[in-house]
Each structure stands twice: as C-alpha cells, then as structure tokens.
C-alpha cells in the first residue's frame, strides 16, 4: 500500500521515525522525481538474525580479509553510491528529499552505514535506520565483487552481538533469500516490530 507525499517537500525527521515505528517507509519513483510516497507492504522482508546464512564462498572471502570494514565513516558516500545508476539497475528510489532526510537522521544518530574499503576507496556498503532493537536495512551497493555481501555479514554479526532482535529488509529478493531472508505477513511483522521497539540496543560504542 502506498500513499502520496507532497512533491519536493522535505521529510521531517520526527515524522520519518514515527513512520518506521508504525511499519511504514518512504520511496520515490526515481532519483529525478521530486515526489515521495509511503509504503506499507502486505508482506515484509526480514532476515531472522538466528537463521542468517553465510555461503561457503563468502566465508572464504571474509577469512582472507580482502576488505577493510568500517562503520559510519562516509555515510553520504554510501547513500550516494546506493543511488548510482548501474548496468543491472537503471533507476533508483533515492531522490533528493530522501537523501536529505537520511543524512539528517545520520547526523542525529538514527542512521548508520557499514562500509567496505580497499586501497583507500569505498567499494561497497549498506545503510539503514536504527530504532529500539530494530535495524531497517535501506539499500546496499558493490563496486567490487562480494563487497556488499561482506558488509551484510558484518552487519548481522554486529546486530547479534549488541542485542538487536529485528533486521528488516523491506522486501525479499533472490539475492537476500540466499542469506536467509523471508517474507512475513504484515500482522506478524507488526508484532515483531512492536517487540523490537521495547528497550534499546546500541549500534555504535
């Protein structure tokens, strides 16, 4: 289900946090479209933290330490890379109002990035919103093979070790299903979200 939002309007951060707390998130048709709409899916994608699956080939990449994994060192760089057009994706849902809102959420401590660096270059990453004991994954990108996958594995390890109970992926894809992502009906998701909003977990020290 979607609802329209005022064209080119700034998204207030308090409204954005309330939306996440009620199971709603914003999207845009494309980067050039100034409109933003709210989405509340009938089926919601989540990765159960206790059922996260790391493929054998990825375990090998992680062991070799090919990437320097960092958090929150270049949030703007991550969201801009997620919005880039690529061969497999010619458009993006990250427009100017969304970019501005999430950068402000990052400044306020509600958004975080996990980044893969190699030889001083940002080559992969992901970002999302932290609320209570929930982490809402927004988008990821790779400029080198496996870079975003390693970031996802690092994210799950961090969430597991810091008291998080919900990793929201919004939707499932075949790519995310390889890691254990599943679809849950809205009613079940809202119960998971309600429980995750009780108490607090720290993403950063």
Structural features, described:
The protein is an alpha+beta fold and 205 residues long. It has a single domain, classed as 3-Layer(aba) Sandwich (Aminopeptidase), CATH 3.40.630.70. The chain is built from seven helices and ten strands. The radius of gyration is 16 Å and the shape is globular. The N terminus is likely disordered.
What would you say the CATH architecture is?
A: 3-Layer(aba) Sandwich
Strand order of the largest sheet: 5-6-7-8-9-4-10
How many domains make up the coordinates? 1
Count of alpha and pi helical runs: 7
Give the topology, please.
Elements: E1 2-4, H1 13-21, E2 25-27, E3 37-39, E4 43-46, H2 56-64, E5 68-71, H3 75-82, H4 96-107, E6 111-118, E7 121-131, E8 134-142, H5 147-161, E9 166-170, H6 174-177, E10 182-185, H7 186-196
Parallel strand pairs: 8-9
Antiparallel strand pairs: 1-3, 2-3, 4-9, 4-10, 5-6, 6-7, 7-8
Can you summarize this structure?
The protein is α+β, with helices and mostly antiparallel strands.
């Amino acid at each position: 289900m979607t609802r329209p939002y005022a064209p080119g309007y700034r998204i207030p951060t308090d409204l954005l946090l309330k939306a996440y707390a009620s199971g709603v998130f914003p999207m845009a048709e494309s980067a050039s479209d100034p409109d933003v709409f709210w989405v509340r899916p009938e089926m919601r994608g989540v990765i159960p933290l206790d059922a996260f699956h790391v493929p054998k080939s990825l375990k090998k990449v992680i062991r070799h330490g090919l990437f320097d994994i960092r958090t929150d060192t270049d949030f703007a760089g991550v969201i801009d890379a997620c919005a880039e057009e690529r061969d497999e994706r010619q458009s993006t849902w990250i427009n100017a109002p969304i970019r501005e809102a999430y950068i402000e959420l990052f400044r306020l401590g509600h958004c975080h990035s996990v980044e893969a660096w190699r030889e001083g270059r940002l080559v992969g990453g992901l970002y999302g919103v932290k609320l209570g004991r929930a982490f809402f994954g927004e988008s990821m990108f790779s400029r080198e093979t496996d870079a975003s996958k390693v970031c996802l594995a690092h994210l799950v390890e961090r969430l597991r070790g810091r008291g998080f109970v919900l990793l929201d992926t919004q939707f499932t894809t075949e790519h995310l299903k390889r890691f254990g992502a599943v679809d849950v009906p809205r009613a079940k998701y809202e119960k998971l979200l309600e429980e995750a909003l009780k108490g607090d977990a720290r993403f950063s020290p």
